[in-house]
Every structure is written in structure tokens, then in C-alpha cells.
Amino acid sequence: MFLTNILLKKAKSKNILVLMESAVSGHQFSMIRERLADKLELQRFDPYIQRMSLYRERKRLRSLN
């Protein structure tokens, strides 16, 4: 491998933007997490049903710097 290939190689970002979705109502929002971390699951207030609900990571949207 040539030295120029190593120098021009693009670095991966540390954080990514992911889409979170409610398991109950389908309400969605985006959140930032580290690339190497596990998939997110958290409890948060769901405005559709006016209660706390479980949100799971649905898909990766984009990389962030």
C-alpha cells in the first residue's frame, strides 16, 4: 500500500444521528449516540398518549463530526 492512500483515507466520525421510535404510539425523534455504543432504549414522555413510553432505536440517519 502506498503512503498517499493512508494519508488520504477518510476518518470515521465518533458520533451518529439515530431515529428513535416509541414502541406504543410510533412517535419519533432523533438523538445522537456514539458509533461504537450499543443500540439505545430509553423511557421518555410520549406526547401522543400523554404517558411515559419505551423508545427504541429504529435506524441510523447519518454520521456526525
UniProtKB/TrEMBL annotation:
Localization of this protein: Mitochondrion
Ribonucleoprotein among keywords: yes
GO CC list: mitochondrion; ribonucleoprotein complex; ribosome
Keywords: Mitochondrion, Ribonucleoprotein, Ribosomal protein, Transit peptide
InterPro entries named among the record's database cross-references: Mitoribosomal_protein_bL33 (IPR052008), Ribosomal_bL33_sf (IPR038584), Ribosomal_zn-bd (IPR011332)
Any Gene Ontology biological process: translation
Main subcellular localisation: mitochondrion
Similarity comment: family membership: Belongs to the bacterial ribosomal protein bL33 family.
Subunit structure comment from the entry: Component of the mitochondrial ribosome large subunit (39S) which comprises a 16S rRNA and about 50 distinct proteins.
Protein name as it appears in the record: Large ribosomal subunit protein bL33m
